[in-house]
What does this fold into?
Amino acid sequence: MLSSAMKKTAVISFAILLIMLGGCKQQPAQSSARQHPHALPSTEAKSPAFDYYLLNLSWWPEFCYSHPNATQCAQHRAFTLHGLWPQNFNGTYPEKCSPASGPADPSQYTDIYPDTGLLEHEWRTHGTCSGLTPDAFFHLARKAVHSIAVPAQLTSLRHQTSMPPDRILDLFTQANPSLPRASLALSCGNNYLTAIEVCMDKSLKPVACGPIRTCRANTVRIPPP
It folds into this structure.
């Protein structure tokens, strides 16, 4: 038989054990940020991988119809650069991948982006997903623009005309013999030509486009530049 003193000691020891076990109760799972204290916020994560670039060249009259105050609209170009956009072959595309600031001197790109507001928008939305510095990205965009010859039949228009989209794309492949038809798409709105799009790899070589939208109109109207 245990003495009363021994019983009292056992009860106290058991109580202490219960308190210790209670203190070891499993805590709720922590967020991944707490589990990995060195993980970067999503806004500072590496740019996602992408498959190719989509060079969008907007037809000047239609661009300026919807952007009447744009600086480049005083220049009466045939096509104006809208952007060089990272794309994926599955039809998805990354946007706004980082809060990184744009080029320190936007004025050095006025030949392709006279409107610095558009330049800044393109950098924030698309350039930050390229994995390039701002200057490298806009140098690449300039090189992409200059690599595409615009057909003389479009630059020399004096009056509005109409053409089937296939005819316009044929003119581009004729003016750019190394450009496969599969690398081209045409955009339209209200049966007006709005843009020519060219799919290029990261070295600016033509590649077949992914499932991007292309104009299905029988003919499109083309106002003169």
